[in-house]
Write a structure and sequence with these properties.
By secondary structure, the protein is α/β, with parallel strands linked by helices. It has a domain of 207 residues: Alpha-Beta Complex (Spore Coat Polysaccharide Biosynthesis Protein SpsA, Chain A). The longest helix has 15 residues.
């Protein structure tokens, strides 16, 4: 059975100012998702599942259904604020989604095979998808998961702070720990993260998570129980987010699963701010000129 690609596309994109998930970046208005799916199909994924807000379903189907028909199976699942589906008898008024791990949970009934998770607004490169397919086809188990590891210096924006999962990696490329840092910025002296008004340096060779994970469906069990506890504990904190990294930390600390950090030399780029858009467009133009992609991706 071929693995599934799960695309996180339900965020608010508040720093970007519009729906960057379906914004056009290629010469024929291709989205970043288009290029990810193109690479995923080439690498050997058999299905694509989109995690979106339900009100955007018609937009997504109009963009992707026709071009993907006959190329890969597709499905849509919805991230929403209904807590009863998780056995939580609470009404919490939020505007901000509950976070990336909660988004993954939305797909718990749609995925029965090994799968990987990616962001809709990040470009990962073919090599990364090929390495993940190899892992999900040959090595993955409920006790053995993976993450594509990128050099932090290759993942920053010139236009403001970004969030990154900072990894501790041993000599055998297994993860020993991961910490979500929400204010990572480049400065003249190097790379730092800010916390409580202070700055702390990060090595330029630090490996970080760009939310490119390899799992089996068994991870849903741990994530669902953790989310119940998280939602109850944070019912008054309307900005609290249930990150994938929180689930990963729990799996590691409890000895439920280990994580192989798969180093990749693929070129990464993405959009956080509106000012990132022309840079991303230029990157795709260059890849097309290099022959990595056809000018018209799907025809």
């Amino acid at each position: 059975m071929k693995p599934t690609l799960l695309i996180l596309a339900g965020g608010l994109a508040s720093r970007y100012g519009s729906m960057k998930q379906i914004d056009g970046f290629g010469p024929n208005n291709e989205t970043i998702i288009d290029y990810s799916i193109y690479d995923a199909i080439k690498a050997g994924f058999g299905k694509v599942v989109f995690i979106i807000k339900e009100e955007f379903l018609d937009n997504f189907k109009a963009i992707f259904d026709a071009k993907l028909e006959g190329k890969v199976a597709t499905d849509y699942v919805f991230q929403n604020f209904d807590l009863e589906q998780y056995g939580i008898d609470l009404k919490i008024d939020r505007i901000k989604p509950w976070g990336t791990a909660h988004a993954v949970l939305a797909a718990r009934n749609a995925i029965k095979e090994p799968f990987c998770v990616i962001n809709a607004d990040d470009y990962y490169g073919l090599e990364s998808f090929e390495k993940m397919v190899d892992f999900l086809s040959n090595d993955v188990s409920p006790e053995h998961y993976a993450m594509m590891g990128y050099d932090i210096k290759k993942t920053l924006s010139d236009y403001g702070a970004v969030s990154r999962g900072i990894c501790e990696v041993n000599n055998d490329w297994f993860m020993e720990g991961i910490t979500e840092r929400t204010n990572v910025i480049p400065i003249q002296e190097g790379i730092v993260y800010e916390e409580d008004g202070k700055r702390f340096p990060l090595s330029p060779d630090t490996r970080v998570s760009m939310n490119f994970w390899g799992f089996t469906p068994e991870m849903f069990k741990t994530a669902e129980q953790m989310f119940r506890d998280f939602a109850i504990e944070n019912q008054a904190n309307l900005k609290a987010e249930f990150y994938i990294t929180l689930v990963v930390e729990a799996l590691l600390k409890k000895g439920i699963a280990d994580f192989k950090v798969i180093p990749t030399e693929s070129k990464w780029f993405g959009v956080t701010y509106k000012e990132d858009k022309p840079i991303v467009q230029a990157c795709f133009d260059a890849l097309i000129k290099e022959g990595v992609y056809p000018e018209n991706l799907w025809t």
